[in-house]
Write a structure and sequence with these properties.
single chain; alpha+beta; eight-stranded antiparallel β-sheet; seven-stranded mixed β-sheet; 16 helices; binds guanosine-5'-triphosphate; binds magnesium ion
Amino acid sequence: MKAYQTNQLRNIGVVAHGSAGKTSLVEAMLFNTGAINRLGRVEDGTTTADFHPEEIKKQVTIHTSLVPCEWNNTKLNMLDTPGFSDFISDVKAVLRVVDGALFLVCAIAGVEVQTELIWGMAGEANLPKIIFINKMDRENANFDKALGEVEQMLAGNIVPVQIPIGAAETFNGYVDVIAQKAYTYKANGEVGEIPIPGDLADTLASYREKLIESSAEMDDEALEKYLNGDELTETEIMNGLKAGIKAGKITPVLCGSATKNLGVRQAMNFLADYFPTPEDKSGAPLSSLVFKTLVDPFVGKMNFVRVFAGTMKADSSLYNANKEKAEKIGQIIYVRGKHQEPAQQLACGDIGVLVKLQDTNTNDSLCSSKDKCVKLDPVIFPVPTYSVAIEPKSKGDEDKLGNAIHRTMEEDPTLRVEKNVETHQTILTGMGEMHVDITLDKLKRKFGVDIITKEVRVPYRETIRATVKVEGKHKKQTGGHGQYGHCWIRIEPLADKEFEFDEEIFGGSVPRQYIPAVEKGVREAMVDGVLAGYPVTNLKVVLYDGSYHNVDSSEMAFKIAGAQAFKKGALLAKPVLLEPIANVEVVVPENFMGDIISDFNTKRGRILGMEPDGRLTTVRAQVPMSEMYRYSIDLKSITQGRGSFSMEFASYEEVPAMLADKIVAKAKADKEAAEK
Ligand SMILES: Nc1nc2c(ncn2[C@@H]2O[C@H](COP(=O)(O)OP(=O)(O)OP(=O)(O)O)[C@@H](O)[C@H]2O)c(=O)[nH]1
Ligand SMILES: [Mg+2]
């Protein structure tokens, strides 16, 4: 791959809802450059961008792929992103490093949820946007309907610069609104000029008017001319369009078919001619951001990096501003999907891959040295909310699993792993079912660990509601050295603290040195509650009496006596089961509010409040954690993917009696089964 100057580069994020045709479009683009001589198909797993085994298997994009297309003396750095919501983190990362986004809209399905969401993100980032209405060749393709949805659902000044000629099997050309000419696609990829179809004349006139008006608004002189009723020159229109795109004030709309490779060359020309170039800061100190990390089985760790200022040179040393550590560049490589070739440098604005960096991962800023350090804003990744419990299929693989997960997390910022000390489960949390499935597949394929998943156990706890006085006596005095420990304890509920131990011993009925042993016995007994084996909390134990034996008493004997007393006492002290409650915040379009609330009612939730904010409403509630482990799936189905939520632990509360009976019964059955 040739080296390109900053003004020859275009960094373009290809984004949309799943299946809109992003990967197919990028494939056609690459084919048109001559870099590949066969047009790969997603269905066959032969595209350049979807090369990871998990992508080929599922026929969807899971990882962002960088596919540079050398075209008309420019390099279009196309970043093909996933459309499936579980992998939205990759889209977020891409939007952080590109100079604009190419949105695909399916000519049949129209504007779908993920497209709407990503549109919002691109808007927040002030990114230039272009729309390509795809699948014009398919049955029921309807450009006007798709365009209508775009205008209605996506904010901004939408300006069609092409009009398709025909649709579905008759789709065979387009009218260029800028040049005011009509073309038909030819088999060899060229186009031939044809007369403008009569039935499109009015549409052309109205789109052209919109284009001129929008372009004129970008320049005072042009605007004055326009308002005076004078004609704008072609150059003025083109400059206005270019400026409008860059400023995010004009969103041009193009059309075509990715899989038939129709309209794709025109889209490439348009990107090369009208899309903004990276800002040229080649003279400034090096500033760059890693936006994706992949662990390749052959190459090792690959860090995708975008240079924002300066030039990055191969065989040089870098400084990682986040880790505050020097890094040596092993090699810079240009990638095209999985194809790799060495590069001497990355010009300002360019995107490439660094291999074998020690401590660098996604979101790290790399600069030239400590004193010329530039730390860039990181990508804010979504917090994962879908959890499963995992364990290796064969017990011996525990260590292997730990290591494999650690490596996988290096390349995935939306994965969490946590060992729950109460339930002894390892909990894997990801963005959704598909994300977790793919992660488990990957762990098996890359690291050879077979993993089974289990339902997440709720970390219930137990406490008591009444005060009791009980005796514990451990006495074995037949033959040899005997054992003797004897205590009286009072167990009382304690509101704000997990545990407290006190003593009110008079006259040395229990000698000093054995008091800690009683406490130890109680604490050990509290780990395994009397109701269902959960840890017991929120109580105070007071040792107030007992007795001892000069020869036979020991710490061990008093520990056993303490434990005995506690077990007996806890049963008498009205034990109850506690469950963790979460504070939940759900953000949904206003019209789903009612459904969200009634769903929480079925989940034993308490609604704390609702706050409208524009089209969205935030619902705040307290819901038992046990009802929330699969909420990401429920929320997706209630809102068709338009909602998001977060939650955090709030407190422990008593489980309603009916439910508690079931949990206790199940715990007993489990215990019996385990003992068999
Ligand atoms: N008829 C027709 N089918 C298309 C076109 N573009 C894509 N497809 C088909 O639509 C399906 C999805 O295409 P992809 O290119 O994988 O779509 P994507 O946007 O990359 O999807 P994700 O990676 O899952 O987000 C595939 O079966 C393609 O063959 C098109 O222009 N016309
Ligand atoms: Mg794809």
